[in-house]
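Contributing new records

If you add data, match the layout below exactly. Sequence lines come first and carry their own label; structure lines follow with theirs. Keep one chain per record. Anything else will be rejected by the validation script.
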Amino acid sequence: MTPRSPFIRELKVGAFPRGVRLVSIFSKADQVSPFPCCRLEDEGVGNTFNVELPDVAHQELLYRRVAYEAVRRELELTHHGEAVPPPRPATLRPVHF
């Protein structure tokens, strides 16, 4: 998704629903969705999270193992209904506001 896509614009309208978990998996090396517009703004809701992947270009988000593992982990947390994820592995740096 790009910073000005219709989906992203729609996300900015009103507060994000508390019962829905939203995670942005991003990299500062992504030149298509550049930092910091790829980060979710923390509105104190507690169900929006940012996961930074170091040195992963935009296209690499589709095939790099570290990106795949991050997506799988976040989907599993969503499936189990966990609002706050457990600590992430040391290879990933969570981004906090």
